[in-house]
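Title: Comparing notes on inverse folding

I've been comparing how different people in this forum approach sequence design from structure. To keep things fair, I'm posting one structure and asking everyone to reply with a full sequence. Here's the target:
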């Protein structure tokens, strides 16, 4: 029975879509397996400790349990920075000085936070010479760090990954372009920290919503670059509202606590999530 993980970002209260994801993840671990809880709070401008506390409270109310201590990503920035430094030393990462207002891709990435799964970056800064990079860094121009995906693929060769529902898939990380591995305001990114932590925590089956399927291509590439063990994946369908739209925090989807306050029982909420 595998180790799985539920890895929410504490940017708001959990809603019914999160309940589905957490219950699914627990189910996939099976009776003899473990479901870990990980708090993905690298975006310190959007994450709040009260939401982190609420996540644990709401999941326990739903009847879920997980091993302690919970891994809290913001406590491990130094680890991610060290991993990134290794990739940088191998010439696989380049500084990107583009601003949100000048690149459409960055603007879209900001909307899609925390994953940054926006349109593909045009690669503008990939073409800067070493001295141009050095001058801009010396001038204090803020920069993100991007993975040079073509260079990384040249190093790893073709890769595949296995989705338990979709079968063996050829990794196509170029579909997301040169993803950000460290943001201007944060020493890591979703892609880097999630890949590192899944390996570190011995996660054997990665479960998450099918909205993140594209990210898996990138994670597979990072695993190969970093010599990490390769899990299997399952991407579950998202819960849709009455209008066929996915539940999201920004749409003020009904939170688990609002449902609890309205008198719903854990069993009723589980049933609403399909469990
Ligand atoms: N932290 C991500 C989120 O809240 C989930 C990441 C994952 O499961 O890979 O959407």
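Reply #1:
Here's my take.
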């Amino acid at each position: 029975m595998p180790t799985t993980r539920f890895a929410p970002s504490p940017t708001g209260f959990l809603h019914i879509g999160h309940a589905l994801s957490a219950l699914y993840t627990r189910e996939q671990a099976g009776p003899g397996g473990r479901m870990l809880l990980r708090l993905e709070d690298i975006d310190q401008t959007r994450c709040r400790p009260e939401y982190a506390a609420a996540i644990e409270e709401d999941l326990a109310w739903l009847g879920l349990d997980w091993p302690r201590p919970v891994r809290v990503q913001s406590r491990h920035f130094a680890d991610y920075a060290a991993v990134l430094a290794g990739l940088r030393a191998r010439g696989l990462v380049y500084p990107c000085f583009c601003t949100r207002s000048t690149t459409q891709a960055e603007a879209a990435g900001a909307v899609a936070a925390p994953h940054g799964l926006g349109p593909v970056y045009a690669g503008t800064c990939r073409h800067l010479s070493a001295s141009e990079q050095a001058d801009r860094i010396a001038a204090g121009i803020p920069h993100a760090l991007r993975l040079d995906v073509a260079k990384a693929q040249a190093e790893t060769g073709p890769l595949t990954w296995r989705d338990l529902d979709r079968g063996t898939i050829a990794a196509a990380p170029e579909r997301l372009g040169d993803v950000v591995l460290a943001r201007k305001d944060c020493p890591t990114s979703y892609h880097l920290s999630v890949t590192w932590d899944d390996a570190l925590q011995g996660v054997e089956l990665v479960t998450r919503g099918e909205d993140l399927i594209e990210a898996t291509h990138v994670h597979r590439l990072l695993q190969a670059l970093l010599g990490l063990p390769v899990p299997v994946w399952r991407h579950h369908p998202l819960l849709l509202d009455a209008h066929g739209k996915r539940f999201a925090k920004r749409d003020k989807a009904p939170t688990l606590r609002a449902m609890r306050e309205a008198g719903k029982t854990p069993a009723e909420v589980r049933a609403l999530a399909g469990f």
